[in-house]
Amino acid sequence: MVINLLNLFFPRVCLGCKAYLIDNETYICTSCRHELPLTNFHLDSNDTLKDVFYGRVKLENATALLHFSKKGIVQQLMHNLKYKGHQEIGLFLGEWLGEELKNIEAYKTIEVVVPVPLHRTKLRRRGYNQVTKFGQGIAKALGIEFNDKVLQKTLATKTQVFKDRLLRTSGDLATFSISENKSLIGKHILLVDDIVTTGATIESCANVLLKIEGVKISLATMAITD
């Protein structure tokens, strides 16, 4: 009764299309959920995302839950997540992907989830890392540790989408550091991020983590750009 009254005065809306949600819907409406462009990379043993990093960084496995396209539903979800404070989107997507990954043999050896970090200036301004809930959702589903302390961004950088890839990567390596490495020695790490575009940031993070003795890296993101 209380929930129904709250919905009456403060109606819940779909974070994808802004339609009113009904009682059995959470975060996004049934119609939007059915329209989400799933990649199924991990379900189909598809190496599309892994191939993005071929010759750049060694990854054990790599997957993205969704395809991202401009003006699509995924862009709307990412906008609400990053700029409107709707962290529940990250948790929703993380739990969804985590439930699928836990049944896949290649992901059963993963021991810790590490998110791509924000620089402290951006973190202070936004108030949260949009990847945190996503990573926590995956970690919970897999029954493993979530560690957002070990990897740090030490230099605030502007968007690098339009830079030459070699220029991007040469600069990016200096923007990330590791606070300590003993807890990750010999671990299989799942690095998580929101969207893969050029892959430069992920490449840099992975290469820094790979400096830790015996580490292996897999990757999971919310989306990959078409």
Please, could you describe this protein's structure?
The protein has 226 residues and is an alpha/beta fold. It has two domains: 1-35, no CATH class; 36-225, Rossmann fold, CATH 3.40.50. The chain has nine helices and seven strands, in the order H-H-H-E-H-H-E-H-H-E-E-H-E-E-H-E. Strands 1-7-6-2-3 form a five-stranded parallel sheet, sandwiched between helices. Strands 4-5 form a two-stranded antiparallel sheet. Helix 9 links the parallel strand 6 (188-196) and strand 7. Helix 5 runs parallel beside helix 7 and helix 8 packs parallel to helix 9 (200-209). The longest helix has 14 residues, at 88-101. It is globular.
Question: Would you kindly provide a brief summary of this structure?
Answer:
This protein is an alpha/beta fold.
SSE arrangement:
Elements: H1 2-9, H2 30-35, H3 48-52, E1 62-68, H4 73-83, H5 88-101, E2 112-115, H6 120-126, H7 132-142, E3 145-146, E4 151-153, H8 165-172, E5 176-178, E6 188-196, H9 200-209, E7 216-225
Parallel strand pairs: 1-7, 2-3, 2-6, 6-7
Antiparallel strand pairs: 4-5
Helix pairs in contact: 5-7, 8-9
